[in-house]
Design a protein that fits this description.
With 474 residues, the chain is of the alpha+beta class. It has 3 domains: 208 residues, no CATH class; 112 residues, no CATH class; 59 residues, Arc Repressor Mutant, subunit A (Orthogonal Bundle), CATH 1.10.10.410. It is 40% helix and 20% strand. Strands 1, 2, 6, 7, 8, 11, 12, 13, 14 and 15 form a 10-stranded mixed sheet that branches. Strands 5-4-16 form a 3-stranded antiparallel sheet, with no helix packed on it. A hairpin with a 2-residue loop joins strand 9 and strand 10. Helix 12 packs across helix 14 and helix 14 crosses helix 15. The longest helix has 20 residues. The model has no long low-confidence stretch (mean pLDDT 93).
Length: 474
């Protein structure tokens, strides 16, 4: 029997606010344990939470970007469950009245765009972190109260690759919006996956397992691939799939049972009495909308239309906003933006990837890429010399014109001088001339190489080829 997987993802997005959702404690990552805490986020008796307005604005911004319905009336609820790193014994979240509903994330998979429908996006506070060591378990509450948006997709994905691309797309969007840094390893973007299988053609959902502890796109794919195989093998051997939470064990490459899954009603949700409902008017939404930048998909489409780039090149250049901005500055007023794109994609990104750096780390100013392309286009230097100049630019941050002048790399375009050199080379290589005349036309490459050797790569290749063809054919 053929089976199909049904996958829904719950993605937690940690917001880039300076302070926590209900208090003024810092959200900075990496501080000493339990130093970013106060009576509010520690859940002390008698304290009252105060909502961080920027959390609401970030939620509106994401809702607009993903075509969600923005609820004008929403409210917080208490979600009761016990974790050692949840100070109050309950989490402030949203339940029956979330801030955002519906909408979709548009992913590019198998050569086409596909819309992944969303159920809801709601605001909530994060819990702390438990660290397990050989001598016991320790609790760090710095993260308790950090603002989150939880995105719940509909169960409409069917492959691990779709799920991975969905996550990558969300990461691109939230980074463009400036609301989250998308760092999965630090936990600022986390994902739980709900997965079940069913016979192909069936519409009824199977019993699902929830997967946790996946802190990279690669882990999400591998965990889902394993779980699909595990569930199929279990069903075919007559075993009943139980609803449970499972952990991904990266070292073993398997998922392990953690606990039976609680249903929503066991959390005993009720409206939080300490927080008033959130009222959002049209004016507030319009104000937030003005701050939404051009998003990756629209930017890629514009790059294709405006700069004549290939689809794949445009997608790579718009993957990170910083890279897209760098390209735009480099391509500004350029007569050949495609060439600018090629130098960035092949040379600059190649060097940066080799050194484990990002575009923000490069010493090369964007306008220097444009200047380098212009030097090659107007014949001042050859493409081969251009690579030498680029290497120097990358290492020193110097302008290409300065490097060309400093190292005397200006291309030789003096036709008479090149012709005299070619005459001498032809005279000294009668056998190669004979081979060319007997039909081995690729011998011309030997002569070009000799000219370049004599000129240390400075002779204009076009002029060299034209003169050689004329001389050898004559």
């Amino acid at each position: 029997m053929e089976y199909e997987a049904v996958i829904g993802l719950e993605v937690h997005i940690q917001l880039l606010t300076k302070t926590k959702i209900f208090c003024s404690c810092s959200t900075d990552f990496g501080a000493n344990p339990n130093t970013h805490v106060c009576p509010v986020c520690l859940g002390m008796p008698g304290v009252l939470p105060v909502l961080n307005k920027q959390v609401v604005e970030y939620a509106i911004k994401l809702g607009e970007a993903l075509n969600c319905k923005i609820n004008r009336f929403s409210r917080f609820a208490r979600k009761n469950y016990f974790y050692p790193d949840l100070p109050k014994g309950y989490q402030i979240s949203q339940y029956e009245l979330p801030i955002l509903e519906g909408g979709y994330v548009e992913i590019f998979i198998d050569g086409e765009y596909k819309k992944i429908a969303l159920e809801r996006i709601h605001m909530e506070e994060d819990a702390g972190k438990t660290i397990h060591k050989a001598d016991g378990s320790y609790v760090d509450l710095n993260r308790a109260g950090v603002p989150l948006l939880e995105m719940v997709s509909m169960p409409v994905m069917h492959t691990p690759q779709e799920a991975s691309e969905y996550l990558r797309t969300i990461r691109r969007i939230v980074r463009y919006l400036g609301i989250c840094d998308g760092n999965m390893e630090e936990g600022s973007m986390r994902c739980d996956a709900n997965i079940s299988i069913r016979p192909k053609g069936e519409t009824k959902l199977g019993t699902k397992a929830e997967l946790k502890n996946m802190n990279s796109f690669k882990h999400v794919e591998k965990a889902l691939e394993y779980e699909i195989e595990r569930q199929i093998a279990a069903i075919e051997s007559g075993e009943k799939i139980v609803q449970e939470t499972r952990l991904w064990d990266e070292k073993a490459g398997i998922t392990k049972s953690m606990r039976s899954k609680e249903e929503a009603f066991e959390y005993r949700y009720f409206p939080d009495p300490d927080l008033v409902p959130i009222l959002i008017d049209d004016e507030w939404i319009e104000r937030v909308k003005k701050d939404i930048p051009e998003l990756p998909k629209e930017k890629a489409e514009r790059f294709i239309k405006e700069y004549g780039l290939k689809d794949e090149d445009a997608k790579i250049l718009t993957d990170e906003k910083a890279l897209a901005d760098y390209f735009e500055k480099a391509a500004k007023d350029s007569k050949n933006p495609k060439s600018v794109s090629n130098w960035i994609l092949s040379e600059l990104l190649g060097h940066l990837n080799r050194d484990g750096k990002s575009i923000e780390d490069t010493l090369i100013k964007p306008e220097f890429i444009r200047e380098l392309v212009d030097l090659i286009e107007n014949g001042t230097i050859s493409g081969k010399i251009g690579k030498t100049v680029f290497k120097e630019m990358y290492e020193t941050g110097k302008a290409p014109k300065h490097i060309v002048e400093e190292k005397g790399l200006v291309q030789i375009t003096d036709t008479k001088a090149i012709e005299e050199m070619i005459d001498k080379i032809i005279q000294n290589n009668p056998k190669a001339v004979e081979q060319y005349k007997s039909g081995k036309k690729n011998t011309i490459g030997f002569f070009v190489g000799q000219v370049m050797k004599e000129t240390k790569g400075k002779a204009n290749p076009k002029i060299v080829n034209e003169i050689l063809a004329k001389k050898l054919e004559g």
